[in-house]
């Protein structure tokens, strides 16, 4: 099954009420009406962002802030019941979508579920060699916590591994976007996501240690 590498942003859809061109998928600036979600909408399109593993955080942040101001339930308290309900639903969706997109592991799982829904989005167990590597990093964090060794080299090593892994995943996701009928590639992505989950846990622990040791 082939998929186009050019993603639909939905920014040029028309308002469901006044037919004006939409700047954002969830809200019309012209008539200030909230929009019903369409079949092709997802966490990426509501922010006007292409379906890619590598995201532009400033773009998502700016869209989030602008939409949150327009959609907040307090601004629609006197609107019709349907409009009030949409305001609550869309606000919750915005928060949920931003949380997922700003976490690379959750973003990868979600994107995989969009691109290859029949093959599953669950992360796979990393190979033993990677598990040994993460165990060694865990031991290094233990030593840093005990004051036996400095934290910075281990923290840098974790960040470097994450950076390299995310670059590899981005390339794999781009290939999957062009052709989703690639079970072996999906499996490789699932393994990569499994690795990423381990690294993010290590990164979180290192950040907590840095905070406690400062």
Q: Specify the CATH architecture of the largest domain.
A: Orthogonal Bundle
Largest sheet: none
| Helix coverage percent | 55-70%
Q: Structural class, from secondary structure content?
A: mainly alpha
Number of helices: 6
Instruction: Look at the structure and give the mean pLDDT.
Output: 90
In words, what does this structure look like?
Residues 127-206 form the Co-chaperone HscB C-terminal oligomerisation domain. By secondary structure, this protein is mainly α. The chain folds into 2 domains: 1-102, Helix Hairpins (Orthogonal Bundle); 118-213, Up-down Bundle (Monooxygenase), CATH 1.20.1280. The chain is built from 6 helices and no strands. Helix 1 packs antiparallel against helix 2 (81-101), helix 3 packs parallel to helix 5 and helix 4 (128-145) runs parallel beside helix 6 (183-213).
Name some characteristics of this structure.
214 residues; mainly alpha; Helix Hairpins; Monooxygenase; 2 domains; disordered N terminus
Please sum up the structure shown.
The chain is mainly alpha-helical.
SSE order and pairing:
Layout: H1 57-71, H2 81-101, H3 104-115, H4 128-145, H5 152-178, H6 183-213
């Amino acid at each position: 099954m082939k998929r186009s590498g050019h993603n639909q942003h939905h920014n040029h859809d028309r308002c469901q009420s006044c037919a004006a061109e939409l700047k954002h998928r969830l809200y019309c600036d012209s008539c200030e009406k909230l929009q019903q979600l369409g079949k092709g909408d997802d966490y990426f399109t509501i922010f006007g962002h292409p379906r890619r593993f590598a995201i532009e955080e400033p773009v998502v942040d700016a869209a989030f802030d602008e939409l949150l101001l327009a959609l907040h339930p307090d601004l629609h308290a006197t609107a019709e019941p349907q409009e009030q309900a949409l305001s609550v639903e869309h606000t919750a969706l915005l928060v949920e979508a931003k949380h997922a997109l700003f976490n690379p592991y959750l973003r990868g799982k979600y994107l995989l579920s969009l691109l290859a829904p029949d093959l599953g989005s669950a992360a796979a167990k990393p190979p033993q060699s990677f598990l040994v590597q993460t165990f060694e990093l865990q031991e290094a964090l233990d030593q840093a916590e005990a004051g036996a060794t400095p934290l910075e080299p281990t923290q840098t090593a974790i960040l470097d591994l994450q950076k390299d892994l995310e670059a590899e995943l981005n390339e794999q996701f781009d290939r999957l976007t062009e052709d989703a009928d690639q079970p072996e590639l999906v499996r490789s992505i699932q393994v990569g996501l499994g690795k990423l989950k381990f690294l993010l846990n290590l990164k979180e622990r290192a950040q907590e240690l840095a905070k406690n040791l400062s």
